[in-house]
Amino acid sequence: MRCDLKRRFLLLYATQKGQAKAIAEEIWQQADAHGLEADLHCISEMDKYNLETEKDPVVIVISTTGTGDPPDTARKFVKKIQDTTLPPDHFAHLQYGLLGLGDSEYTFFCNGGKTVDRRLQELGAQHFYNTGLADDCVGLELVVDPWIDGLWLALKEAFLSQKEKEGMSSNAISSTPSAAPHVGQELNLSSEVQNMKLEDGVRSSDVLTQKLADIHLVASTRETEPSLVHSIPPVSQSALNIPALPPEYIEVQFQDTHGENPHLSSLISEGTTFEVPVTKAVQLTREDAIKTALLLELDIADTVFDYQPGDAFCVICPNNVSEVEELLHILGLSEKAEYFVSVKVKQGTKKKGAAHPQHIPERSTLKFILTWCLEIRAVPKKAFLRALVECTSDAGEKRRLQELCSRQGASDYTRFIRDSNVCLLDLLHAFPSCKPSLNLLIEHLPKLQARSYSVSSSNLYQPGKLWFVFNIVEFPASPARPVSRKGVCTGWLADLVAPLLHLNKNTLDTEGGSSSTEKISIFARPNNTFHLPADPSVPFVMVGPGTGISPFIGFLQHRQKLREEHTDWEFGETWLFFGCRHQDRDYLFKQLRCFLENGTLTHLKVCFSRDSSTAEQTPPKYVQDVIRLYSKEVARVLLKERGYFYVCGDKKHMADAVNDAVVDILSMEMETDKLEAMKILAMLREAKRYLQDVWS
Ligand code: FAD
């Protein structure tokens, strides 16, 4: 409920996977303790706010998706502000602060936020606080936490200048008698102290000065190295500033065992889901390859699911069965696995805006929730660790959990939790006296996301079939994780198709099917520009090492069919740069030769990064090295013939290296400096002629 004594600001979030929303909610929550009131809305709820008339400061938290796009929820908003007829003073009245979220492993880091920021500036809006750009690659919290800490002072100054502008004395702020001094006091507090405030405003007793002697788990004289469960000085001896205990807000009641779980389609808000049989599974790599790549074929003939080559789609995947059982066991809830539970918001909870989590069905079994709804592998956030402290009975374990969520233990958190990809189960093993309740898991574990895959076929070439290719992700055992694990989705798919794989090993013919009854649920992933040029006479270059080859198989199948069907059409030249480790072990599609032989593919250039060579001149190892050998041709296709350039695959190293190679090529062939070449590449991206589809 709105409290009129508090200063108000508008708080908008644009989220794709929920992170921007969670951060906005955190700001909303903290605002209260600073005597402020945040009017919180999803940026898509354009009927609930109006920037054209907004007088109060505006705070925007916005993530980035795809290849530098704002999230889907911001699409309408961005379209609206990008209206070129808007005058340059359209938002001259607006003061705002923007926090962008992104991942620097992608080329267009934080581009969603940057796009909105740039446009608001062009339309005359003023920053009341510096833009923050948080990087998921190193940990969002490294920027998010200090940005939120500084926000309160910036807001206070924004309110003061707003009042001054309105011709009122700065004292006028005390027209909110109780709020004004409160705000002043709060904003002068150090960020550490702010974070120690408890919900009810009572000073936390969480500044801990426990002595080393009290600590059970802290390093013994022999243990001088810190680890997930051991700390060393100074952390082990510090007084700790730990976050406020997040108020519990979920209540779980066990009901009966009668009834059916909801259909998986009810878990998805992004569109229609299709349950389709897996009709073929082929292992594309040899047993001795470092990674195992599988190709799966889905039968979509009996559905209205449609796709174009280059599209991606999503697979709804469950958590690993034995991990779910283990979790049930540790929670002491194995007996209740098949019980239906009702999940409700706790009456009288102190959590602001507490709502039923959208990804938890109104009625489903406990096992269903742990299997299909919660990302149990998620790296626990500091707030979750803070909550786990309260469910831990051993004093030493308690202290270590406190350290890991404290400011003093920030680098331990990054090293032993975030960078080690520790999940809840790992924590529960490492801290055996920690026995969280089910409601805590529902409150803190994020939604289990469907995984995206690029389509590796053409509906024209093989109607009713959809291919996709993936590497089985493997995480080796480590000190924090006694067992090795496979990726949630790729591990599940690999197990699911294991019997089928046996039948089809090393055959890639598209004829016939198998008698598999295994089905998976998929849905379309819209908004992809990664498609073949509309004009078939336009030449294009494809760069796809490893599983990055996947969408190009679809491109080539499609192109082959078009060539067969339209012998009178003109078709542009096609280039494919492919690379893998070993020619014998992980050359995923040796059938590429067929495309070359029938003229669908004009140039095929391959390289093998781990094969030794007896040639006098060492052959190039990576696709970017091969591309450089064909500088003239690449420049001709891109510049003279207005061709397209597609890059697909590993975002970490390959996409940037290819980008650099193209900049060098443009610079060399146009005899211009690097900066100019970068501008040309930016123009090509803008014109959607340099297209990337990259993933980790
Ligand atoms: P997850 O369990 O989600 O783990 C994946 C990542 O999480 C790891 O890379 C790592 O960073 C981290 N991680 C989680 N747990 C640990 C741990 N214990 N130790 C270390 N790291 C950990 N992939 C393909 O193979 N083929 C494709 O065609 C393809 N197309 C894509 C298209 C798009 C548009 C996008 C966004 C992604 C695409 N991907 C593709 C990636 C794919 O969606 C999945 O991310 C990938 O298959 C891994 O999923 P998973 O559930 O098996 O792994």
Automatic annotation (TrEMBL):
FAD-binding FR-type domain ranges (all copies): 271-533
Keyword Iron among record annotations: no
Entry EC no(s): 1.16.1.8
Keyword Membrane included in the entry's annotation: no
Catalysed reaction equations from the record: 2 cob(II)alamin + A + 2 H2O + 2 H(+) = 2 aquacob(III)alamin + AH2
Subcellular location field: Cytoplasm
Pfam family, one: Flavodoxin_1
Gene3D superfamilies: 3.40.50.360, NADPH-cytochrome p450 Reductase, Chain A, domain 3, Nucleotide-binding domain of ferredoxin-NADP reductase (FNR) module, Translation factors
Main location: cytoplasm
One example GO MF annotation: flavin adenine dinucleotide binding
Cofactor(s) recorded in Swiss-Prot or TrEMBL: FAD; FMN
Domain of life of the source: Eukaryota
Listed GO biological process terms: cobalamin metabolic process; folic acid metabolic process; homocysteine metabolic process; methionine biosynthetic process
UniProt keyword terms in alphabetical order: Amino-acid biosynthesis, Cytoplasm, FAD, Flavoprotein, FMN, Methionine biosynthesis, NADP, Oxidoreductase, Phosphoprotein, S-adenosyl-L-methionine
GO terms under cellular component: cytosol
Residue span(s) of domain Flavodoxin-like: 9-152
CDD domains on file: methionine_synthase_red (cd06203)
Subunit (UniProt): Forms a multiprotein complex with MMACHC, MMADHC and MTR.
Listed PANTHER family: METHIONINE SYNTHASE REDUCTASE, NITRIC OXIDE SYNTHASE-RELATED
Protein name: Methionine synthase reductase
Species in which this protein is naturally found: Ardeotis kori
Lineage: Eukaryota, Metazoa, Chordata, Craniata, Vertebrata
Designated gene of the protein: Mtrr
